[in-house]
Design brief:
There is one protein chain. By secondary structure, the protein is α+β, with helices and mostly antiparallel strands. The chain has 7 helices and 20 strands. α1 (about 65-75) packs across α6 (about 210-225). The chain binds zinc ion (ZN). Zinc ion (ZN) binds near residues 58, 61 and 144.
């Protein structure tokens, strides 16, 4: 931010009190046409932090697109303190192809940050995004979904050892936080490394808009804005219960030992007890069924959606809960309790 409160990027400036919708060139196609990402920059009347909201770094992960667009274009931000940099579709070539990776050598844009201007096409794109719209921010949220064919509970991934990202993760108010530094080249990892604390929000499945998850994420964004004093309308929310899953927690991706067609007995967000049947792998004749049981009591953070597996494919992501959290979840999921908002 400049002294005059303006947000500047290479090629432009958004003055205090101004909103701009821009299409910013990050590469060129085989035909020499520009590849441009949509960016909405809302510079509030009042001073405050600068935050980015981004989605579709993986091109088929759509839920976050709607979250970012609704904040940018449907919320009343006339009283915003600070600046929002909203990027609903980071990975335009992959979005156009409706696939996860860049269709150029199948590169992962979300392993290419902070990028480099004189390197591969993926890293050049990443650098244009990072230098102009990520590095100038004070913090940010990058929205993802599960990989195609799977779904997960809305949860936050953050480096909880880092004070700034831990504050952001807690402010979002999800039930589940998975703690970890993240891989090198990830947007949240690299942003945090240059002093822009960032978290990843994982929500639902690819190729879909899931309204209840989008609403849940919008409530999380509101809560974050409240934490940083950007938006007076709301208070920071407490989700009722929370579990931080770190390296010490028991957690596992349960993998199929047999190929087949999967009959999943629980939804994402379900609490399963040790020995409970999670799913059954069947063959075309429905004989020789293989039953998968929970190796420990835990929460199904992610489950398979596309019900077919080769041996070795993931079936579900099971994480252990601390005793007191488990009791709260048990109460919520009991027949007379409230249903869990996944
Ligand atoms: Zn993703």
């Amino acid at each position: 931010m400049g002294d005059d409160g303006a947000f500047t990027y290479n090629g432009g400036k958004v003055a205090q009190g101004e909103t701009q919708n821009i299409r910013y060139g990050i590469s060129e196609t085989y035909l020499g046409d520009p590849v441009r990402i949509p960016v909405t920059i809302i510079n509030g009347e009042r001073d405050g932090p600068t935050a980015f909201l981004s989605a579709a770094a993986h091109g088929d992960e759509l839920n976050g697109i709607e979250v970012v667009r609704e904040v940018a274009h449907e919320w009343d931000l006339s009283d915003l303190a600070g600046t929002l940099v909203c990027m609903p579709v980071l990975n335009v070539p992959a979005f156009l192809a409706q696939q996860r990776y860049l269709p150029i050598y199948d590169r992962d844009l979300n392993r290419s940050f902070p990028g480099r201007e004189d390197s591969t096409s993926a890293k050049r794109m990443a650098a244009r995004i990072f230098d102009n719209f990520i590095a100038p921010c004070d913090f940010g949220i990058d929205f993802h979904t599960s990989t195609r064919g799977r779904t997960n509970m809305i949860h936050v991934r953050a480096n909880m050892e880092h004070k700034g990202s831990a504050r952001l993760a807690q402010a979002f108010g999800s039930h589940v936080i998975i703690a970890g530094e993240g891989s090198s080249g990830m947007l949240r990892t690299e942003a945090t490394a240059v002093g822009v604390p960032a978290i990843t929000v994982e929500m639902g499945e690819a190729h879909r808009f899931q309204r209840e998850l989008i609403d849940e994420a919008l409530a999380g964004v509101e809560s974050v804005f409240a934490e940083y004093g950007m938006y007076d309308a709301t208070a920071v929310r407490w989700p009722g219960w929370r579990t931080v899953i770190d390296d010490a927690s028991e957690k596992t991706w349960i993998r199929a030992e047999a190929g087949g067609i999967v009959d999943m007995h629980h939804d994402r967000g379900a609490l399963v007890h040790e020995g409970d049947r999670i799913c059954t792998i069947t063959n075309p004749f429905k004989d020789d069924n293989v039953t998968i049981e929970a190796p420990f009591t835990g929460l199904l953070v992610g489950v398979l959606e596309n019900p077919v597996v080769y041996p070795g494919n993931p079936l579900c992501h099971l994480v252990e809960l601390e005793e007191h959290v488990r009791r709260v979840v048990e109460r919520e999921q009991s027949p007379d309790g409230h249903t869990l908002r996944a």
